[in-house]
Amino acid sequence: MNLESPKVTVEKSAEYIFNALTDIKNFEKLMPENIAKFEVIDENCFEFGLKGMPEIKLVKKEAIPNDKIVLGAASSKLPFTLTGNLNEVEAGKTEVQLLFEGDFNPMMAMMVKGPIGKFIETLANNMNKL
Question: Which SUPFAM superfamilies match (predicted)?
């Protein structure tokens, strides 16, 4: 299952956005208002929970300076990645898009598609809070 957030333009350089996203604790600023838990485990891992959803632990898998950052599920039960693509369109202005890729059975995909789509859209729209 692949989902894409809308592209959002942030009035910051790609370097600034990249550095903010590689600092795991900054993801708390991007979370939706209905967040029930946010805990930094270490410099590469955090756990969060939204009301009515199971808690999810994300680990930084890959980071290409000023270009992209990839987070993945710490558990192999629900394998997925969340990729943030950065594109500096002009000095001090960066386009950000989040891509979600998950390997779910069709029933699970049907159940989580709506909530995850809304979740990555919220994360993208909150990029201006960094």
Answer: Bet v1-like
